[in-house]
Specification:
CATH superfamily of the largest domain: Efflux pump adaptor protein, beta barrel domain
Helix content: 25-40%
Strand content: 35-45%
CATH architecture of the largest domain: Beta Barrel
CATH topology of the largest domain: Elongation Factor Tu (Ef-tu), domain 3
Shape: rod-shaped
Oligomer: single chain
Radius of gyration: 44 Å
Distance between the termini: 54 Å
Number of domains: 4
Largest sheet: 6 strands, antiparallel, barrel
Strand order of the largest sheet: 4-11-14-13-12-15
Number of strands: 21
Number of helices: 3
CATH class of the largest domain: Mainly Beta
């Protein structure tokens, strides 16, 4: 072979090698994707609150004395447990206590006076009977009989008047006691003292009509808690009392508590610059679940509208517009049209278009992820059969 031919052959080989290298370097690299395996399980149709709900106590009273005055006794502190009827707070009331004592003594005097008058009335009636007997024997005049009868009637009337006065005196005791009671704040139910606003020696003033003020004592019954959560007006018509629900709280991450819908508000809340909502109240199915919870916690409620078990399902996050999914198959991504049934934010029922163990792409928002591209799986399912 001549030297020229060898040079030409070497050049051709080098050009081919460069072309192969350029082709290899410029080839499209597989796109890394995250997949989930299509499986069989439960799918629920649910609706959830649009904004955070709130844990509330079934009974909560923000209490203040009905009258103003100076605190003379503070019987409770924040965190104390009380029973119904326990004294919470008392204002200075020595003058009113004296009024009760005065009323009691006046009532005693009135009772004694009435007893005296009634005894005289009895004596007048006995005298009338004697005069009548003497009249039958013609031993007394008719004038004496008339005088005795008048005295008997007057005595009985005086007795009734004295007894009425005694009853008025007894009523005055009730009035004085009621005035005294207005200076005492009594627990209307058993609960826990959440807040106390005031100290011994300070003055409290009753809230004017229509002007909210801080309560003297905030009493909460922690033995019964429920969740109130706003549901969008579009979803509210499907919710009925008695439906099952799932409750989650920020204070207990990763935990879900079974609940039951107790009430759906009969009106729509219209708040400026916010979607119109309907308040839905949900109670805990198991009272033990809220034993350590506090009113005021933020909470979310997911109401279960319908349930289907043992159905083919895919993660809802894998579904594209118009019920399409991307399936990983033999190193490539292919698009599938599917038919769906029940759905929630976790899973969606698939009635057609997929089979069990298909691998659907859930990282659909990544750049370059679309049908027809080569792909590699970042999280191959452990123990899953190979894709067909």
């Amino acid at each position: 072979m001549s030297r020229l031919r060898r040079r030409i052959l070497i050049i051709v080989v080098l050009v081919g090698a460069v072309a192969v290298l350029i082709s290899w370097l410029s080839r499209e690299k597989p796109v890394p994707v995250v997949v989930k395996q299509v499986d069989i399980g439960r799918v629920e149709s649910t609706v959830a609150n649009t904004r955070a709900g709130t844990v509330k106590a079934c009974r909560r009273a923000r209490l203040s004395p009905p009258t103003g005055g100076q605190i003379s006794q503070l019987a409770v502190h924040e965190g104390d447990s009380v029973h119904a009827g326990d004294l919470l707070l008392e204002l200075w009331n020595d003058d009113l206590a004296a009024q009760v004592t005065l009323a009691q003594r006046e009532a005693a005097a009135s009772h004694a006076s009435a007893e005296q008058v009634c005894l005289k009335a009895d004596e007048a009636e006995r005298d009338l009977k004697r005069q009548l007997k003497l009249q039958q024997r013609k031993l007394t005049s008719e004038e004496n009989v008339d005088r005795a009868a008048t005295n008997a009637k007057a005595g009985r009337a005086s007795c009734r008047a004295a007894e009425a006065t005694a009853k008025v005196s007894l009523a005055q005791i009730d009035v004085a006691r009621a005035a005294l009671q207005r200076t005492r704040l009594i627990a209307p139910f058993a609960g826990t003292v959440a807040e106390v606003n005031g100290e011994v020696g300070e003055f409290v003033t009753p809230s004017p009509t229509g002007v909210p003020t801080l309560p003297a004592v905030d009493l909460v019954d922690n033995s019964c808690l429920y969740i109130t959560a706003p549901i969008d007006e579009v979803d509210a018509p499907a919710i009925r009392p008695g439906m099952d629900a799932r409750i989650s709280l920020d204070a207990f991450p990763g935990k879900h508590f079974p609940g039951i819908v107790q009430r759906v508000a009969p009106y729509v809340l219209e708040v400026e610059k916010q979607a119109r909502t309907v308040d839905v109240e949900t109670v805990f199915a198991d009272p033990k679940d809220f034993a350590t919870m506090l009113p005021g916690y933020s909470a979310d409620v997911e109401v279960i509208l319908a349930v289907r078990d043992d159905v083919l399902r895919v993660p809802t996050e894998a579904i594209l517009e118009n019920d399409r999914v991307l399936v990983y198959r033999n190193g490539l991504l292919e698009e599938r049209q599917i038919a769906t049934g029940l759905s929630n934010w976790r899973n969606t029922e698939v009635t057609d278009g997929l089979t069990e163990h298909d691998l659907v792409v859930v990282s659909i928002d990544r750049e370059g992820v679309h049908a027809g591209v080569a792909a590699t799986v970042e999280n191959p399912p452990v123990g899953s059969p190979p894709a067909p």
